[in-house]
Amino acid sequence: MKNIGFIGLGNMGKGMAINLSSNNYNVIGYDSNPNVFNELSVENISEGKNIEDVVKQTEIIITMLPDGIAVKEVWKQIINFASENSIIIDCSTIDVKTSLEVQKNAQNKNLLTLDAPVSGGVMGANDGTLTFMIGGEEETYHKVKNLFEIMGKKNILCGSFGTGQSAKICNNMLLASTMIAVGESFKLAKNLNLDLEKLYDVLSTSSGSCWAINNYCPYKGIGPKSPSDDDFKGGFSSALMFKDLSLAISAAKETNTKINYGIQSHKKFEAIVKKEKGHFDFSYVVNES
Ligand code: NAD
């Protein structure tokens, strides 16, 4: 049984690690919050003492961390302890610049790297149906493609290092805009005295359909189960969406790209975070006027 190191076992990392462990991988995990292991009492997952302990037992290490600061901190240690030709895969969503920087540092120590952020949310992580957008060399990608196939339903090698992160910020900027638009559509329907169940039936099968409505309807009791059914607990936090929109805005500035919806979405998520509601799932944005 092959060993895999997994660092960052939060909302997303937990399901991903469980899927690897149930496919005959021996997962050695680490998280700065040891409580995550209370929910990980699964066969084939053990708790590493620290990052060094994880890295010394594994030749493939996956990181699933909140942001670029955490990735920098964790990769510094991984690079320090990893043996040559180990493969380090970062599945977190971070800025392209930091991703390129940490990967370069690793490559200078003869380590192989990929950026492989994901889409599909906590449900996708739990069900093994994520989409991976990958940046890096084809040879490294083929060495670990089977892991992406276990944790996801689709994986796309987008190009060289950093292109996975570029694809991810474009995706999330679009997701934020569509979720806000779904909220506006429901608000108008409500004021027109339309039955919202009927609206869902129409929208989810008409030209207005999109992932935000079909899979993640932000109204309680409507559509498949989503965080709105659980008072916006869990899921993909508004704070993380705010981070991703900040990354998109910086990238747009750096590339002189004119974006309007992205800027408006960013303002809405900024307001949620300022009201200390950033822990709510991002679909909470439909309540932000
Ligand atoms: P999370 O906050 O639930 O999990 C992150 C985990 O990393 C936490 O358990 C935390 O304790 C741990 N951690 C933080 N700093 C650490 C460090 N220095 N050393 C070790 N562990 C550390 O976040 P999440 O929702 O699982 O998201 C993880 C990443 O995936 C983010 O970059 C996010 O943008 C991205 N993402 C999330 C979703 C989603 O729906 N939640 C969807 C797609 C992508």
Which key phrases capture this entry?
289 residues; 9-stranded mixed sheet; alpha/beta; 9 strands; binds nicotinamide-adenine-dinucleotide
Question: Layout of helices and strands, plus pairs?
Answer:
Elements: E1 2-7, H1 11-21, E2 25-30, E3 45-47, H2 51-56, E4 60-63, H3 68-81, E5 87-90, H4 96-107, E6 112-115, E7 118-119, H5 121-127, E8 130-136, H6 138-151, E9 152-159, H7 163-191, H8 196-203, H9 211-214, H10 238-254, H11 261-274
Parallel strand pairs: 1-2, 1-4, 2-3, 4-5, 5-6, 8-9
Antiparallel strand pairs: 6-8, 7-8
Bound molecules: nicotinamide-adenine-dinucleotide (NAD).
Structural overview:
The chain has 289 residues and is of the alpha/beta class. The protein is 47% helix and 15% strand. It has helices at 11-21, 51-56, 68-81, 96-107, 121-127, 138-151, 163-191, 196-203, 211-214, 238-254, 261-274, and strands spanning 2-7, 25-30, 45-47, 60-63, 87-90, 112-115, 118-119, 130-136, 152-159. Strands 1, 2, 3, 4, 5, 6, 7, 8 and 9 form a 9-stranded mixed β-sheet that branches. Strand 5 (87-90), helix 4 (96-107) and strand 6 form a beta-alpha-beta unit. Helix 1 runs parallel beside helix 5, helix 3 (68-81) packs parallel to helix 4 (96-107) and helix 7 (163-191) crosses helix 11 (261-274). The longest helix has 29 residues, at 163-191. The N and C termini lie far apart (52 Å). The mean pLDDT is 96. Nicotinamide-adenine-dinucleotide binds next to helix 1, helix 3, strand 7 and helix 5.
